[in-house]
Amino acid sequence: MTNYRWRIVGLLFVATTINYLDRQVISLLKPTLETVFDWTETDYSHIVMAFQAAYALSYVVFGRLIDKIGAKVGYLVAVSFWSVAAVLHAVATSTFGFGIYRALLGLGEGGNFPAAVKSVAEWFPRQERALATGIFNSGTNIGAVVAPIMVPWVLGAYGWQVAFILTGMVGFIWLIFWWWGYESPQRHKHVSAQELAHIMHDNDASAAGAIRWIDLIRIRQTWAFILGKLLTDPVWWFFLFWLPSYFASSFNLDLKKPSMPLIVVYTAATIGSVGGGYLSGYFIRRGWTINRSRKTAMMLYALCIVPIMLTRYATSIWEVVGLLSLAVAAHQAWSANLFTLVSDMFPKNAVSSVVGLGGMAGSVGGLLFPMVVGALLDNYKALGDITTGYNYLFILCGSAYVLAWLCIHLFAPAMKPVTLSDGK
């Protein structure tokens, strides 16, 4: 049997790495750009919000588009768009300009996860989907690990503009490999009959025809995913855009040099993503139901994030690194399983649309949460105690996942597969 499906996951992993590398650059350049453009925390939060608003719109538009035109062409459009937008940051001359280019970046980057999750649904049987999702989703962390190594070096040697240009150009290289390497498993010349049978043995037969958003919104399982994303995505955005600044302000970390605490934190997230995807698959192989396997794993991950509330009692940077590493690892494990819930419950021709709806909800949460973050941090910065502001934010983050798990269980208590023809 061939194993070409794992090459597909490799392509998805690299695309997700590039996706997060491009968006992570600004958080590492934040101290430099604050000096150049005289930003306040509120100014920076507005730039983050511009990205989030566009990202929310992009998620739902690409989700619908990719279900119609397929993952191959949809990914091509998304990566091309966001790579151009990433490069354009280098010509920004004002805070408003940064907001415009961040919005353009968000419009393109929202296509990544609908395309990737749909690709996994097409290429993997159910027992392997969480692991495959965990592997490609770990690219979010690799991008965040590479950025603290690469960006400070480029900043010191060539300036902030070149950092945006170099990271943006990487996407165009990936497009070559994607276009020549991806096709549906039924038509791919490198897939043997045995591998195709393995891929398809527990797959659903997708319904024909277009799926209306209104039909999806009426289904309880859709809301399980939407609420899960709404409550937990803003936490990841906070980790992504504010952790470098947190370490710089609370522990005097120099972001002009490679940052070992950030590297450790995001490396832990990589381990959590892959390991988290493996655990629920392990439960399934032991004979557990899909419902019991996914929810048991997700409850364990939700509980692992609660200790982040203890950062206020930490006395050293490495104690904080330990708590944050556990939290981001658990988040990524949670995220791998949350995405997999969609392909567990919905037919393939609706997967990208549902992912788009949930992604939009998560991005709306990510749009609103920076308003709280910016106002709270500016207030405590004026009092000369910005660390206390971060501690309150960590309390909010630590409680979000248990609440999200309860919402998922309420709206999908048995994770019943959806039959779109009768809306059940």
Describe this structure in words.
The protein has 424 residues and is mainly alpha-helical. It has a single domain, classed as Growth Hormone, Chain: A. Helix content is 80%, strand content 0%. It has 16 helices and no strands. It has helices at 4-37, 41-69, 71-88, 95-109, 112-123, 126-137, 139-158, 160-181, 193-200, 213-217, 220-251, 260-285, 290-305, 317-345, 348-382, 386-411. Helix 2 runs parallel beside helix 4, helix 3 packs antiparallel against helix 8 and helix 5 runs antiparallel to helix 6. The two termini are 37 Å apart. The model has no long low-confidence stretch (mean pLDDT 87).
Please render the helix and strand layout as text.
Elements lengths: L3 H34 L3 H29 L1 H18 L6 H15 L2 H12 L2 H12 L1 H20 L1 H22 L11 H8 L12 H5 L2 H32 L8 H26 L4 H16 L11 H29 L2 H35 L3 H26 L13
Helix pairs in contact: 1-3, 1-5, 1-6, 1-7, 1-8, 1-11, 2-3, 2-4, 2-5, 2-15, 3-4, 3-5, 3-8, 5-6, 5-15, 6-12, 6-14, 7-8, 7-12, 11-14, 11-15, 11-16, 12-13, 12-14, 13-14, 13-16, 15-16
Write a compact overview of the structure shown.
The chain is mainly alpha-helical and 424 residues long. 80% of the residues lie in helices and 0% in strands.
